[in-house]
Design brief:
The protein is of the alpha/beta class. It is built from 14 helices and 13 strands.
Length: 357
């Protein structure tokens, strides 16, 4: 097989985050469309590629982490086009496409450790100036990247937008056993999904929950903590909170399908994939009226002010009190999700590769 570009496969070697999910699902959709074919390169310590990855991955170099990405990867890629889908890339390379998902580390620096935000400030500035193609996942993020890092240099293409999809959550049958395992059988719960970054505003969800009159209503919170990135994260110590840690896609689908609603009052999102997953599963959605979320969710969600838990409590009260409203939001969400698909994202991506490389 001839390969049209080299893919930075560092994301294949770590526990998947939102940006890693973007890379995996985008490349899986690219494989289905059969438009372009990458040669994925990974660090030498990489284990087996995740289930469903459609191409072999070649181990190169001898370093790990950022050192591998900055030194070994560009040397192994040589003169070929290099595609980087998860925010980071070789800082001094021109012959590459890099997807920078957001400007969160610059927009909200106190949410991140000093080391992380300093490194990202330097790296993203270099990538914005030097990479042949810079893309992101929403119009909001494109504006934010230019606001914090300046416009692209003269002669460089404008920031491109590649959307996302949520239909991957429907690929695996729901593992409904997680509901009784977590003690949720016969219980009403609101679902929140994401890392314990302060930006995700889990504390706001808890404050809203405490304003609601139903003492039996639970908050189920999935996702893990990343202290090396976000520093100190808040606690969700409350008897009505069920913290699951990381869950499989099959388990997450079941949690979406059994929840009264999904809540996502984030302060800042480059795209916001969990609301789209929830919509695909027919779960009513309540999100923040901020950043990219109105762009993604449109009129298929209820909105709240992330700075004011009372507005979130009011939206939750509306949803919890009305079966009709929940059904309407579920139908609107499925229709909205149909406009954001990985197949569409793959077509956007393939066109960028063909145009610029």
């Amino acid at each position: 097989m001839s390969h049209s570009f080299v893919l930075n496969g560092r994301f294949l070697t770590r526990q998947a985050t939102g940006v890693d999910r973007f890379a995996f699902e985008l490349m899986r959709a690219v494989h289905v469309t059969n438009g372009v074919a990458p040669l994925a390169m990974t660090p030498p310590n990489a284990g087996a590629v995740p289930v469903g990855w459609p191409w072999p991955a070649e181990r190169v170099g001898h370093r790990q982490g950022h050192a591998w990405e900055q030194l070994d990867l560009p040397r192994a890629a040589g003169a070929r086009a290099l595609v980087n889908l998860c925010n980071t890339a070789p800082a001094l390379r021109e012959q590459q496409l890099v997807v920078i998902h957001d400007a969160a580390s610059a927009a909200n620096p106190t949410n991140y450790t000093f080391t992380f935000r300093t490194w990202y400030r330097v790296l993203l500035g270099a990538l914005m100036r030097g990479s042949r193609v810079v893309a992101t996942v929403s119009k909001f993020s494109a504006d934010e990247l230019q606001r914090h890092f300046g416009p692209r240099p003269a002669g460089r293409a404008a920031i491109e937008v590649i959307g996302e999809g949520g239909e991957h959550i429907l690929r695996t049958p729901a593992d409904a056993d997680i509901v009784p395992r977590l003690g949720l059988a016969g219980r009403r719960y609101v679902l929140a999904v994401g890392s314990r970054s302060p930006n995700k505003n889990f504390e706001g969800v808890l404050k809203a929950l405490q304003r609601l009159p139903d003492p039996e209503l639970l908050l189920v919170a999935t996702g893990g903590q990343a202290h090396a990135i976000f520093g100190k994260t808040g606690s969700l110590a409350d008897p009505r909170v069920v913290s699951t840690g990381y869950v499989s896609d099959a388990e997450l689908r079941a949690l979406y399908e059994h929840a009264e609603c999904f809540v996502f009052p984030s302060f800042y999102e480059g795209f916001g994939l969990p609301p789209l997953e929830a919509m695909c599963c027919g779960c009513p959605v309540v999100v923040s009226r901020r950043a990219s979320l109105p762009e993604v969710c449109g009129d298929a969600a209820l909105y709240c002010d992330p700075d004011d838990p009372a507005t979130l409590a009011a939206a939750l009260s509306r949803v919890l009190a009305s079966r009709t409203l929940r059904d309407e939001l579920a139908a609107a969400g499925r229709a909205r999700a149909a406009s954001w698909t990985w197949a569409a994202a793959a077509r956007q991506f393939a066109e960028l590769v063909r145009t610029h490389f």
